[in-house]
């Protein structure tokens, strides 16, 4: 059984856990969409045994690990996996086929009888989890400097100086 979020355990979903609500959704669909959602859910767990199931936005299955990994939405003709930070993920297998214009999300629309590249999907899930967990560790890592470069703060100092010069002009215009 997958982990559930505290919100669903607190009884905000009629006393049912997120896992139970997702189970119920799969059963209620009773067609290829339910079977596909169940299959994708199993792949999520295989890719990341610590994934947390949540039930948000009035009935959307959400899979999280240190932030949202993806949602599992079902529509009339498609099961949609929307990756919250999909635009930041490499997709060498070209699984993303929807929501390609945005700056943040990317989605995979799975149609009836469509074969899913399970190996590539699990790799994408692992990469999404790694992206969520990056920077969350307390260990300090050190890197060896190979050559001297200007500090990254130089453009920030220039921008701060420009704002400072512009501040009197803004005050005068009030």
Explain this structure to me?
It is a single chain. By secondary structure, the chain is of the alpha+beta class. It has one domain: Alpha-Beta Complex (Aspartate Aminotransferase, domain 1), CATH 3.90.1150. The chain is 39% helix and 17% strand. It contains 5 helices and 6 strands; from the N terminus they run E-H-H-H-E-E-E-E-E-H-H. Strands 1-2-3-4-5-6 form a 6-stranded mixed beta sheet. Strand 3 and strand 4 form a beta hairpin. Helix 2 packs antiparallel against helix 3 and helix 3 crosses helix 4. The longest helix has 20 residues.
Measured on Cα atoms, how large is the radius of gyration? 22 Å
SS elements, strand count: 6
> Uncertain segments of ≥5 residues (pLDDT<50)?
5-11, 169-174
As for the CATH topology, it is Aspartate Aminotransferase, domain 1
Main sheet attributes: strand count, strand direction, barrel closure = 6 strands, mixed
Silhouette? globular
Helix fraction?
25-40%
Overall CATH class: Alpha Beta
Taken as a percent bin, the fraction of beta residues is 15-25%
What is the average of the pLDDT values?
Answer: 82
Q: Report the order of strands and helices.
A: EHHHEEEEEHH
Distance N terminus to C terminus?
Answer: 61 Å
């Amino acid at each position: 059984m997958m982990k559930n979020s505290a919100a669903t355990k607190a009884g905000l979903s009629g006393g049912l856990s997120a896992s139970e609500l997702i189970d119920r959704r799969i059963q209620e669909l009773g067609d290829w969409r339910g079977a596909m959602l169940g299959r994708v859910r199993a792949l999520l767990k295989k890719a990341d045994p610590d994934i947390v199931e949540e039930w948000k936005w009035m009935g959307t299955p959400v899979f999280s690990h240190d932030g949202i990994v993806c949602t599992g939405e079902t529509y009339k003709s498609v099961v949609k996996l929307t990756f919250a930070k999909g635009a930041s993920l490499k997709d060498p297998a070209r699984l993303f086929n929807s929501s390609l214009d945005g700056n943040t999300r990317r989605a995979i629309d799975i149609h009836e009888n469509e074969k899913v590249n399970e190996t590539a999907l699990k790799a994408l899930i692992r990469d999404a989890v790694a992206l969520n967990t990056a920077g969350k560790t307390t260990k300090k890592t050190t890197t060896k400097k190979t050559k001297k470069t200007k500090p990254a703060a130089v453009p920030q100092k220039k921008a701060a100086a420009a704002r400072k010069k512009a501040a009197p002009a803004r005050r005068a215009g009030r």
